[in-house]
């Protein structure tokens, strides 16, 4: 197993430039410990790991997947297969919809990596919060 350390690189999304960190999807999923065998629990675990990994740079602000998380389309598909391999969870449908909508897909992200933009100034719907990490 190869340990992949986060890399902080300046980004140029629409609007003012925002720095970001990138993590291998495998690195993120290997750290997930869902509390139950449901898709919602897997999504909670994955989002909790991401929030925990960037907490140092995110100044306590919650992450919003649509605003802060980006994955290559093929990586997004792999992540969704992992999440949805668990038991269906109707309570998580709205949150899963953010990922299925394509709002987090970005072809500029390297395949196999998850990009998290840092330094959000506001919070919004679908926020990720570090969960006890």
List the helices and strands in order. Answer: EEHHHEHHE
Average pLDDT figure: 81
Strand runs, count: 4
Oligomer: single chain
Question: Which shape, going by the Cα principal axes?
Answer: globular
The strand line-up of the biggest sheet is 1-2-4-3
- In whole angstroms, the N-to-C terminal distance is 22 Å
Structure classification: alpha+beta
Whole-number tally of structural domains: 1
The number of distinct helices, counting runs of at least 4 residues, comes to 5
Low-confidence stretches: 1-12, 122-133
Radius of gyration: 14 Å
Largest sheet: 4 strands, antiparallel
Percent of residues in beta strands: 5-15%
| Share in helix | 25-40%
Structure description:
The protein has a four-stranded antiparallel beta sheet with strand order 1-2-4-3. The longest helix is centred in the middle third of the chain and has 16 residues. It is an alpha+beta fold and 133 residues long. The N terminus and C terminus are likely disordered. The protein has one domain. Helices cover 35% and strands 14% of the residues. The chain is built from five helices and four strands; from the N terminus they run ββαααβααβ.
């Amino acid at each position: 197993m190869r340990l992949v350390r986060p890399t902080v690189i300046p980004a140029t999304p629409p609007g003012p430039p925002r720095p970001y960190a990138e993590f291998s999807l495998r690195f993120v999923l290997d750290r997930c410990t869902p509390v139950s065998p449901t898709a919602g629990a897997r999504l909670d675990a994955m989002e909790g790991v991401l929030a925990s990994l960037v907490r140092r740079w995110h100044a306590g602000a919650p992450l919003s997947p649509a605003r802060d998380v980006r994955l290559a389309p093929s990586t997004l598909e792999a992540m969704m297969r992992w999440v949805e391999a668990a038991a269906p969870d109707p309570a998580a449908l709205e949150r899963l919809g953010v990922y299925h909508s394509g709002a987090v897909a970005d072809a500029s992200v390297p395949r196999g990596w998850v990009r998290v933009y840092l330094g959000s100034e506001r919070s919004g719907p679908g926020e990720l919060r570090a969960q006890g990490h």
